[in-house]
Amino acid sequence: MVTAGAGIEAFDRVTLWYQNLAFDYIAPEGKSSAEFQFFAAGSGTIHSITVNGRTYSHTEIDPDGESSDQQASALIAAMSGDPDVSATGGSTSNSVLLTVLLTSAGIAIPVDASDGTPPSPCG
């Protein structure tokens, strides 16, 4: 169980012993997370994140304006249940941190976002 720090990183290792047999696992090489920032741009603007061909989006609808933080929060909520990544708040209040789920570890997962962050592989 990871309780602090950056989580599972490439080449982290765990060995489970059961009845004098060792079961060894080494986390595969590759990025285990990607972070994207979002910026409010006015009513009607669509913000999105694409993960392995699945697009999650949020459209700004408040005529008084929405904050950049609200864009990130709405996208995090839209992504709950994704089979490849978990979405949480990132290092700033307007960012979304995608972390590869253990069930998808070692698989290259293409991710992209609408707000000008370059595409990157995850996994």
If you had to describe this structure to a student in words, what would you say it looks like?
The protein is mainly β and 123 residues long. It has a single domain (30-122), classed as Immunoglobulin-like (Sandwich), CATH 2.60.40. It has 1 helix and 9 strands. The chain has one helix at 68-78, and strands at 13-18, 21-26, 33-37, 46-51, 54-59, 85-89, 95-100, 109-113, 120-122. The protein is elongated and about 65 Å long. The protein starts with 12 loop residues before the first strand and ends with a strand.
Topology:
Layout: E1 13-18, E2 21-26, E3 33-37, E4 46-51, E5 54-59, H1 68-78, E6 85-89, E7 95-100, E8 109-113, E9 120-122
Antiparallel strand pairs: 1-2, 3-7, 4-5, 4-8, 6-7, 8-9
Concise structural overview:
With 123 residues, the chain is mainly beta.
Which blocks of ≥5 consecutive residues have pLDDT under 50?
none
Shape: elongated
CA distance, first residue to last residue? 19 Å
As for the CATH topology, it is Immunoglobulin-like
Count of helical regions? 1
- Provide the domain count: 1
Descriptive labels:
Immunoglobulin-like, 9 strands, 1 helix, 123 residues, mainly beta, four-stranded antiparallel sheet, 39% strand, 9% helix, elongated
